[in-house]
Protein backbone atom coordinates (compact mmCIF):
# COMPACT_ATOMS: atom_id res chain seq x y z
CA UNK A 1 0.00 0.00 0.00
CA UNK A 2 2.85 2.38 0.87
CA UNK A 3 4.49 1.92 -2.55
CA UNK A 4 1.22 2.70 -4.32
CA UNK A 5 0.70 5.93 -2.38
CA UNK A 6 4.29 7.04 -2.95
CA UNK A 7 3.95 6.17 -6.65
CA UNK A 8 0.85 8.35 -6.92
CA UNK A 9 2.63 11.23 -5.17
CA UNK A 10 5.60 10.89 -7.55
CA UNK A 11 3.23 10.95 -10.55
CA UNK A 12 1.49 14.05 -9.19
CA UNK A 13 4.83 15.82 -8.70
CA UNK A 14 5.86 14.91 -12.25
CA UNK A 15 2.68 16.55 -13.57
CA UNK A 16 4.42 19.91 -13.34
CA UNK A 17 5.23 21.08 -16.92
CA UNK A 18 9.01 21.11 -16.40
CA UNK A 19 10.00 21.66 -20.05
CA UNK A 20 7.47 24.45 -20.59
CA UNK A 21 8.59 26.16 -17.38
CA UNK A 22 12.22 25.96 -18.48
CA UNK A 23 11.46 27.26 -21.96
CA UNK A 24 9.32 30.07 -20.57
CA UNK A 25 12.08 31.21 -18.20
CA UNK A 26 14.53 31.06 -21.10
CA UNK A 27 12.22 33.13 -23.29
CA UNK A 28 11.06 35.65 -20.69
CA UNK A 29 14.24 36.20 -18.66
CA UNK A 30 16.97 34.84 -20.93
CA UNK A 31 17.78 32.53 -18.04
CA UNK A 32 18.95 28.94 -18.25
CA UNK A 33 18.14 28.35 -14.56
CA UNK A 34 14.83 26.72 -15.51
CA UNK A 35 16.67 23.92 -17.28
CA UNK A 36 18.91 23.41 -14.25
CA UNK A 37 15.84 23.37 -11.99
CA UNK A 38 14.22 20.78 -14.26
CA UNK A 39 17.28 18.50 -14.23
CA UNK A 40 17.69 18.65 -10.45
CA UNK A 41 14.02 18.14 -9.58
CA UNK A 42 13.34 15.35 -12.07
CA UNK A 43 16.55 13.57 -11.05
CA UNK A 44 15.50 13.75 -7.40
CA UNK A 45 12.03 12.49 -8.30
CA UNK A 46 13.56 9.61 -10.25
CA UNK A 47 15.89 8.73 -7.37
CA UNK A 48 13.18 8.74 -4.71
CA UNK A 49 10.66 7.16 -7.06
CA UNK A 50 12.95 4.21 -7.70
CA UNK A 51 13.96 4.01 -4.05
CA UNK A 52 10.43 3.96 -2.60
CA UNK A 53 8.19 2.95 -5.49
CA UNK A 54 8.10 1.14 -8.82
CA UNK A 55 9.60 2.46 -12.04
CA UNK A 56 6.22 2.61 -13.78
CA UNK A 57 5.36 5.77 -11.84
CA UNK A 58 8.45 7.46 -13.36
CA UNK A 59 7.42 6.48 -16.87
CA UNK A 60 3.84 7.67 -16.39
CA UNK A 61 5.05 10.88 -14.73
CA UNK A 62 7.45 11.74 -17.55
CA UNK A 63 4.76 11.14 -20.17
CA UNK A 64 2.27 13.32 -18.28
CA UNK A 65 4.84 16.08 -17.87
CA UNK A 66 5.50 16.11 -21.63
CA UNK A 67 1.76 16.16 -22.41
CA UNK A 68 1.11 19.05 -20.03
CA UNK A 69 4.14 20.95 -21.36
CA UNK A 70 2.87 20.34 -24.91
CA UNK A 71 -0.48 21.87 -23.96
CA UNK A 72 1.09 25.01 -22.50
CA UNK A 73 3.49 25.37 -25.42
CA UNK A 74 0.58 25.11 -27.85
CA UNK A 75 -1.09 27.97 -25.97
CA UNK A 76 2.03 30.13 -26.53
CA UNK A 77 2.43 29.46 -30.25
CA UNK A 78 0.23 32.46 -31.11
CA UNK A 79 3.06 34.68 -29.89
CA UNK A 80 5.28 35.35 -32.92
CA UNK A 81 8.38 36.02 -30.82
CA UNK A 82 7.92 32.74 -28.93
CA UNK A 83 7.99 30.70 -32.14
CA UNK A 84 11.12 32.41 -33.47
CA UNK A 85 13.07 32.53 -30.22
CA UNK A 86 14.16 28.89 -30.27
CA UNK A 87 15.42 28.88 -33.87
CA UNK A 88 16.51 26.73 -35.66
CA UNK A 89 14.11 24.47 -33.73
CA UNK A 90 10.40 25.00 -33.30
CA UNK A 91 9.08 25.05 -29.73
CA UNK A 92 7.63 21.56 -30.26
CA UNK A 93 10.95 20.18 -31.51
CA UNK A 94 12.71 21.71 -28.53
CA UNK A 95 10.10 20.15 -26.23
CA UNK A 96 10.89 16.70 -27.62
CA UNK A 97 14.66 17.27 -27.55
CA UNK A 98 14.76 18.62 -23.99
CA UNK A 99 12.38 15.90 -22.76
CA UNK A 100 14.60 13.24 -24.27
CA UNK A 101 17.81 14.80 -22.91
CA UNK A 102 16.20 15.11 -19.48
CA UNK A 103 15.89 11.32 -19.37
CA UNK A 104 19.69 10.96 -19.23
CA UNK A 105 20.22 12.41 -15.71
CA UNK A 106 17.11 10.55 -14.57
CA UNK A 107 18.66 7.31 -15.78
CA UNK A 108 21.79 8.02 -13.72
CA UNK A 109 19.58 8.78 -10.71
CA UNK A 110 17.86 5.41 -11.20
CA UNK A 111 21.23 3.63 -11.29
CA UNK A 112 22.30 5.47 -8.12
CA UNK A 113 19.06 4.46 -6.38
CA UNK A 114 19.63 0.82 -7.37
CA UNK A 115 23.14 0.92 -5.90
CA UNK A 116 21.83 2.54 -2.73
CA UNK A 117 19.12 -0.13 -2.37
CA UNK A 118 21.63 -2.96 -2.89
CA UNK A 119 24.05 -1.41 -0.37
CA UNK A 120 21.37 -1.23 2.33
CA UNK A 121 20.24 -4.84 2.00
Molecular structure report:
The structure is a single chain. This protein has 121 residues and is mainly α. The protein has one domain. The protein is 83% helix and 0% strand. The chain has helices spanning 2-14, 18-29, 33-52, 56-76, 80-85, 91-119. Helix 1 (2-14) runs parallel beside helix 4. It is elongated and about 55 Å long. The two termini are 21 Å apart. The relative contact order is 0.18.
Descriptive tags:
121 residues, mainly alpha, 6 helices, elongated
Number of DSSP helical runs: 6
Helix and strand content put the structural class at mainly alpha
Number of strands: 0
User: How confident overall, as mean pLDDT?
Assistant: 91
Beta fraction: under 5%
List segments where confidence is low: pLDDT < 50 over at least 5 consecutive residues: none
Following the backbone from N to C, one meets helices and strands in this order, namely HHHHHH
Main beta sheet, described?
Answer: none
Helical amount: over 70%
* Number of discrete domains: 1
User: Taking Cα atoms only, what radius of gyration do you get, to the nearest Å?
Assistant: 16 Å
The coarse silhouette is: elongated
Distance between the termini: 21 Å
Ordered list of secondary-structure elements with their pairings:
Layout: H1 2-14, H2 18-29, H3 33-52, H4 56-76, H5 80-85, H6 91-119
Amino acid sequence: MRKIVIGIIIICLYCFPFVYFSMHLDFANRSMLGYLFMIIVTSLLAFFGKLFSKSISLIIGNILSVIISFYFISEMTGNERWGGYFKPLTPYQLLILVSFLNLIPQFFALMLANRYKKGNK
